[in-house]
């Protein structure tokens, strides 16, 4: 019996992420250097690992409550209060999730219905649209390419007015993947001034909040419009804990009470040992990202210098660990074909800009979450390729 036509029809509208597709397609090339995935090359801090080991040895291997360990939620509450001036009650305004991805899934599943529209500044991380599509809602992208990838209040208000009552949510991500763009306090406050006039959720993906390279600290939009905002965060980027799968949702009690329902039926609760590790990360290790930032800035500046000399156009990123560069080639060359050729001829891999949507075409994304040794060799190979390829 053929059951292939019995699946959710919305699955036909989504595919495996092109980031993963491309990464897998070039992984078999001998001696390939991959600056592709957004995974820190640093190891999880030792004190975080020790906390998990202690918990395991103490037989902390049972379910926690659905919202996560209260001690962890208390640590998360104190962390965002100190770092970002946010006030969230540990008891009923913070949820512990299986990574920021599950936090997004639980949130978007809870707030969206078929026919709803979600506004998303683009180019954007491709993990949002499939979740929205599966529940029958729709992403509408706001093109930021004409403004160096920076969303403006006017762009936002124009989209809100154009799509009207169909807009259920605005999805912000900053510092941004893939562009590294982030926003000042004044810019965030200006967005809030627009959004407070509309009955829309603001889903704010701030998972790169600790990787902010400006002279002022990260500013969450939840500081200005907390009743509308659902903040997504986690420890994968800030504490080099991708494999621990530990995310966080911050939302007012009335919102969190609904989101926990979808969270419960997706995962029940986050992994217990990871939660004990997270307590250490958010308390003793609350500044663990600082030495990583020093290295990331060195790597960023090195890549910008090298690639600018090769005629790539780069908007200097102020956060995350990505370079989003415009490819300096003749008309008609697409980013996927360009990077396949680069990988096959020079054994170095970046991610095609088209993986981040139609507004990313013509660009490439480099993850500088790799050692300086690897980055230097990758730049050398790219330079050889560009000399041969012609620009």
From TrEMBL:
Keywords: Aminotransferase, Pyridoxal phosphate, Transferase. Transmembrane segments: none annotated. It comes from Streptococcus caledonicus. Residues 31-382 form the Aminotransferase class I/classII large domain. This is Aminotransferase. Its EC number is 2.6.1.-. The keyword Transferase applies. InterPro entries: Aminotransferase_I/II_large, AspAT/PAT-like, NHTrfase_class1_PyrdxlP-BS, PyrdxlP-dep_Trfase, PyrdxlP-dep_Trfase_major, PyrdxlP-dep_Trfase_small. Its cofactor is pyridoxal 5'-phosphate. CDD domains: AAT_like. It comes from the Bacteria. NCBIfam families: PRK07309.1. GO terms for molecular function: transaminase activity. Belongs to the class-I pyridoxal-phosphate-dependent aminotransferase family. PANTHER family: AMINOTRANSFERASE (PTHR46383:SF4), ASPARTATE AMINOTRANSFERASE (PTHR46383).
């Amino acid at each position: 019996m053929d059951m292939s036509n019995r699946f959710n029809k919305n699955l036909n509208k989504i595919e495996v992420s092109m980031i993963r597709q491309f990464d897998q397609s070039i992984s078999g090339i001998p001696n390939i250097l991959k600056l592709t995935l957004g995974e820190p090359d640093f190891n999880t801090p030792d004190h975080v690992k020790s906390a998990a080991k202690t918990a395991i040895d103490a037989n902390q291997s049972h379910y926690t409550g659905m919202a996560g360990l209260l001690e962890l939620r208390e640590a998360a509450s104190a962390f965002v209060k100190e770092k970002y001036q946010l006030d969230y009650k540990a008891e009923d305004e913070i949820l512990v999730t299986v990574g920021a991805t599950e936090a997004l899934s639980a949130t978007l599943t809870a707030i969206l219905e078929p026919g709803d529209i979600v506004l998303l500044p683009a180019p954007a991380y491709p993990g949002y649209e499939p979740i929205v599509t599966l529940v029958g809602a729709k992403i509408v992208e706001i093109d930021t390419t004409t403004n160096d990838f920076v969303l403006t209040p006017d762009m936002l208000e124009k989209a809100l007015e154009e799509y009207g009552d169909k807009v259920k949510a605005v999805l912000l991500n900053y510092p941004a993947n893939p562009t590294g763009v982030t926003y000042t306090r004044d810019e965030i406050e200006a967005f809030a001034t627009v959004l407070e006039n509309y009955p829309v959720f603001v889903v704010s993906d701030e998972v790169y909040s600790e990787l902010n390279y400006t002279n002022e600290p990260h500013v969450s939009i939840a500081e200005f419009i907390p009743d509308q905002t659902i903040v997504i965060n986690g420890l994968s980027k800030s504490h080099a804990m991708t494999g621990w799968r530990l995310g966080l949702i911050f939302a007012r009690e009335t919102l969190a009470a609904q989101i926990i329902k979808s969270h419960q039926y997706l995962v029940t609760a986050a992994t217990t040992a990871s939660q004990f590790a997270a307590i250490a990360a958010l308390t003793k290790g609350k500044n663990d990202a600082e030495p990583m930032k020093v290295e990331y800035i060195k790597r960023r500046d090195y890549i910008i210098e090298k690639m600018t000399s090769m005629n790539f156009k780069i908007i200097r990123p102020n956060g995350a660990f990505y370079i989003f560069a415009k490819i300096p080639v003749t008309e008609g060359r697409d980013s996927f074909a360009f990077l396949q050729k680069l990988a096959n001829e020079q054994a170095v891999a970046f991610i095609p800009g088209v993986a981040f949507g139609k507004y990313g075409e013509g660009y490439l994304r480099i993850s500088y979450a790799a050692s300086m040794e690897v980055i230097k060799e990758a730049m050398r190979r790219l330079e050889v390729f560009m000399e041969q390829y012609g620009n």
